[in-house]
Design goal:
By secondary structure, this protein is mainly α. Helix content is 73%, strand content 0%. The mean pLDDT is 77.
Amino acid sequence: MAFMVKSMVGGQLKNLTGGLGGEEKGDGEKSPAEAQGMTREEYEEYQKQLLEEKMERDAQFTQRKAERATLRTHFRDKYRLPKNETDDSQIQLAGGDVELPKELAKMIEQDNEEEEEKDSVIGQLTSIQNLDLDSLKDKAQATLEDLKQSAEKCSVM
């Protein structure tokens, strides 16, 4: 109730006096520097430092996003998937030529080596479960020897 009376009467009273009494600062109306317990110059330096730190964080974040986009682009090329324009734009925002971190490059290199190994005939044979290459080799040699023996017995040759 007191608030309503003060707001109604106080606003009209201020209009009548024209603000001649001077502006009084209440306890809650301190400048931001005074509220932080700093001088104006210290506060400006603090704000400048905060802005620089924010810009550094944003640059690092943009770089990380571009690295991830590069990795996704690599896998899209590898598996022949359609390209994504947001990845291209993220790479361009970071300056175009983005290098992958060493860990990610190592992972991709290992993945490529595994793919090459799987693409080979021996790699495909090892991927078949319950296949013993040594026993397969022994069976193939035994079959070859049997063929040689039967060829020697053949009278047509």
